[in-house]
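Handout for the seminar on molecular recognition.
Each group receives one record of this type.
Step one: identify the two inputs.
Step two: read the structure output and locate the region that could contact pyridoxal-5'-phosphate.
Step three: write two sentences on what you found, then compare them with the reference statements printed after the record.
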Amino acid sequence: MDNKNLTPEYICTHYGEENIEDKYYNAVIPPIAATSLHVFKDVETFIDAFGESEEVQFRYGRASNPTVALLEKKLAALEKAGGALCFGSGMAAITSAIMYCVKPGDHVICVRNAYGVTHTFLNNRLKKWGVETDYVQGNDPSDFEASLKPNTTLFYLESPTSLHMELQDLRAISAIAKANGIKTIIDNSWATPIYQQPITFGIDIVVHTMSKYIGGHSDIIGGLLCSDKETITEISNNYRQIDGGILSPFEGWLCIRALRTLPVRLKQSGENAMEIAKYLDKHPKVKKVNYPGLPSYPQAELAKRQLSGYSGLLSFEPHAPVEQCIKFGNDLKLFQKGVSWGGFESLFAMGMYKENGEYANRHTADRAVLRLYCGLENTRDLLNDVEQAMKAFE
Ligand SMILES: *Cc1c(COP(=O)(O)O)cnc(C)c1O
């Protein structure tokens, strides 16, 4: 099979596992390489392994591991990237990617509704090391141009974002970045590499939490970073190996297992989300539905140009006070209350704001954005659950 035209389904099920000789006792499933080190047949090979030798891949488990490397091979192929690195959490991948792109005195432009902990890292940790960040809405590529400074070295994107589902025009923004010698990172967790390959639009580094769709069963914490070969080698040698953030072999094995069903899981989750988004879109008590797959979504046209499918995360704003929003969440039976998403189970979460857009708590909030993650349950069961809970707004 031609490497460039591998289907995502092929990559998820078989890619990297074609050589029966590599398999342990010809098992259909690859083993978990639970080892901290690899030994050598003689001292000469041992010494050479720590020299320039390209052939020796595995020496010590903080640098690389055969199970994790198989997962990375699959994920790099899915993202159409030169290479991939797996980390012990999404945040470990995100902070390594950002640290690689900046130095003291630099300036970062980040999208306003990116993942909250990423903001905390930029606002607290990086600020301490002399890196300033400005935030932009990001829906219009000119937002980035308007905030450019002579010392801007990084655009940090997340498209779609995971509460408001806002998109950025990845082709246009990477063109602006390239013209100004600026690096680009995108958090691609909402779309997964099945529905969006940002590197093909000119983005430099793609990061993911694998704790969501890629892990897919709400039983692991993991992260992923994809880029060109040179960047991957540099981040592997001078960041992951030094910070000690590699994914463990067992979690790597669980992700290989989960990848086999990623396309079918996304399909079911996305179909569920589309049905619920359509239902909410027609509901008189609903002011706004945030789901890029809805034809009425303000960024639907851009979504079509960048995404080949729509996953299971949506949000909406009802015409209702915050107390009724809380009642809606409580009345849901199948949607459990919790952070995260991307697993088998449907989840409810809410963001609360003051009229001026600032974050608020349940006592100070003027309005709420209600998030529904649609899992792998039956579509009718989920719709019934949402329909009965909508009575909270009557
Ligand atoms: C959960 C999440 C992260 C952080 O990933 P962890 O695996 O929890 O460290 C980053 N980005 C997005 C969009 C997320 O939802």
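Reference statements: The pocket of pyridoxal-5'-phosphate is lined by residues 89-91, 115, 162, 187, 189, 209, 211-212, 221, 223 (CB under 6 Å). The longest helix spans residues 262-282.
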